[in-house]
């Protein structure tokens, strides 16, 4: 075995460790955010008339898509 150090390998291992911590933190924060969003959805009452309506400006937009 060699007795010399390899700074590139150490940099790679540090980056790998930092990336793992960052991914774990993002997953934990995302989980909390989703839980809060779910609670807010259940608490908010739904409007009676939330159905889709095709209005003239919607029809005009669809017409531009056909061209």
UniProtKB/TrEMBL annotation:
The keyword Acetylation does not apply. PROSITE patterns: TAT (PS51318). It comes from the Bacteria. Keywords: Signal. NCBIfam families: formate_TAT, TAT_signal_seq. This is Twin-arginine translocation signal domain-containing protein. It comes from Halomonas marinisediminis. The lineage of its organism: Bacteria, Pseudomonadati, Pseudomonadota, Gammaproteobacteria, Oceanospirillales.
């Amino acid at each position: 075995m060699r007795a010399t150090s390899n700074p590139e390998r150490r940099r790679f291992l540090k980056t790998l460790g930092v990336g793992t911590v960052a991914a774990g933190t993002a997953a934990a924060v995302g989980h909390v955010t989703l839980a809060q969003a779910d609670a807010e959805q259940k608490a908010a009452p739904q409007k009676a008339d939330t159905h889709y309506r095709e209005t003239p400006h919607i029809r005009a937009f669809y017409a531009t898509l056909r061209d």
